[in-house]
Amino acid sequence: MSTLPSQDTIRRSHLSVGDMGLSTGHQNLLPVAAGVHIIPDLTSGRPSSVVSSSATHSHSGHCLHNNHEEELFDNDNCEGSPVENRRSLKTPVNSTDHSLRCLAKDCSADISAEEAASNQKSSACLAVNVPIPEDKEAFESFNHSMSCDNRHHDAYPPSQTPQVVSSSNSTSVAYHHPHESRRGNPDSRTVISVGDDPAGQSLPGVAAKRPDCCGGGAASVTGVSIVSARSMIQGSVITFRDVEYIVPVKKNPCSRAVKKVVLDGVSGIMRPGLNAIMGPTGCGKSSLLDVLAGRKDPRFLTGEVLVDGHPQPKNFKCISGYVVQDDILMGTLTVRETLYLAAALRRKQGSTKVETHEKINEILDELGLMKIADNKIGTELIRGISGGERKRTSIGMEIIADPSVLFLDEPTTGLDAFTAGSVIQTLKSLSRRGRTIVLSIHQPKYSIYKLFDSLTLMASGRIVYHGPARKEPIQYFSKLGYRCEDHNNPPDFFLDILHGEIKPADSTRDNCTNDTLSCGSFEGDEFDAQSDDSFERMRIVSERLVSLWTDSTECQNIRNEVLAVANRSSNATNYSNPPDGIGYAASFPLQLLIVCWRTFIGLLRDPQASIVQTLVYLFFAISMGVVYFGLDTSLESGLQNRSGLFFFATLQVVFVNIGSIELFLKERALFIHEHSSGYYRVCAYFLAKLICDVFPTKALPVFFFMPITYWMAGLVPQVGNFFFFELILTLGTISASAAAMAVSASVTLFSIANVIISILFVFMMVFGGFLINLNSMPPWLSWLRYFSIFHYTFGGLLVNELTNLEFCPTANKTSPTFNDTRKCELGRLYLDNYGYASQTTWDMWSNVVGLSGIAIVCFILCYCLLRRINTFK
Fold it and tell me: pTM for the complete prediction?
């Protein structure tokens, strides 16, 4: 029976055996399992298959020593040269007892079956053989031993039979877990996959270091990953050809727009793996990233962008993942709740709650967020998680929908060196699952740079290098005469070249090949006598480097490959194109429910929004009740005091809503990102704000606290008058909030919005009827009253209170204003003098209609403005 790794040895978490050592969700917990071996096809320069050892046969190991910069062969204990050893592998193996040459000191020349079965050998050797036989019997006849201390692994039950899974680029062995199938996961299995690297380039070789269980430090096997089959992603190949992005720019509002070239004829290909776009500030790397992600305005874009050979679909930004530079998260939610929101809105319908929670736990474990899963993200008032944890949470929100492509705009910005390294290491781990990951980055350290599979160097909106990221860029610039000093960080070296800080070596100019421009292109007074202006120097150098790259063999190969992808028919998914360019995974009711839940949770956990605003309304209600306590019906003060109370109440419910301008300004970036990514429709977000923000925080406090003022002031003690009083003030605050929301949706700066809404409310107050008599207003201005919230609110309160109320002179004859001839007056007469009609029922309810009309118009305007917000970057 084959000795197979146990469930405890190979966890559900991601295991990647790569250049940086054994990388798992739990460090140093997953040793290389005994009996599992890698079979690299050295004749083709890449690993080809994986087998499991048998307990009855044996053959020797074949190991390669790996250096972090290049693969070296150590032949002290081996026979022949590496070339001879490679040739020996071309002969098919027909016997179950094989003796292959060993190239590493740590590997034993021969490993017997007995030693392998008893796990007495602690060498981390790699068995080398021809590709795995397809039939099961021949497969089980092979014996490949790579053993560690047996306390780190057990045998699988006999029912967990290995299954060979082959593809064009790699071969994998899958071990099925019956107990997982009983739990409802029929495809739950562990896959040990060896093949081409995610970028589609042949790996330079298979190298291994001794794992911790063997006492030799962290294990490292290039190009090997053990992952869950359910988490494997089919990455997309993105090709772009002759892409230009030119935008009109105005230096000031009165000047004519001039065209600015952001991208100038760039071409290339992004394969599955970790693809980095690097260059100086302002070189166009973020713009290229946005173009590939479908987040640039197509009106200013020319060229061709293909996804798996098909034209980029309109909804590509919804089916791909995009992590912005500044983390856009709801600070009042926990990490787990944030991922739940993304899962509910972006994952395809049909997933059960159990599956959704399992997926969330998988993402939390994969990104190292399990310990802080129930911690809040954090706001200005709430202490939250760290910057690196926020970045990984943003990544989790995007990958929870299993996108084939993930874009990241400078993910290391604002992070310390260690945190930045951990974030990129996480991305490397994700890329090994098959994803295509494209990121822009400025100047990474070497430990980050060596994780990249491909590199794109840009200068002044054009490409100066595009290809593999390891040794090839240094070799390319070496051909141009640029020498990278020992121990110099390659990214620093590249940026120094682009800034013109490094000149090409004179000794190399005579050795220029026909692949590049003539050697004379490096010479001349223009380069030697460079301008003192660093920008001018960088421009000159950039133009030459672009010319050299355009005429190079490497560039021609890339262009030919891009043309081949564009011309051939692809078998990839034929993406759909929704009419509006946005596809939604969740239904409208679910979108509304989830966004309402998030908004309501945010209000409850934000004391500034939930508690302070409530206390403000309570304070004003009690204050007005105290000031206007026990109003009388005297002719001298009754009318004036009631008018003052109603104006004060109108002033409160209108100007308190100035704070509503923050409603969309604070969440503008969040709304744009989530809406453009297909989280929810505009109407779902807008209705959620009305239901869970405007009505609870603006309308309800007025409805519940203004009765305090009503009864303390001693207004008309009738039920009809009381509820009309409540209705008018509630509609007044909703109308004011709607006006503030419309202003908030129309501008991007808080200061500008504050000025606009303040001027608007003051204008409404002037035409409200309290500061100026409406009858004395000139006809060409009097019509403006119908656009005033003050006019309808203040007028409605007056008509409701004064219509049937009688005011009489005081009985105090000592008063200097006492006049025996004066009689009691009805409040209706006072209303006529103020310019408010009160003869019919419509005269009172017309104020309700007016406030409702203003609110509806402002809400519609706000919704239209939200829909017109430019979601392109």
Answer: 0.70
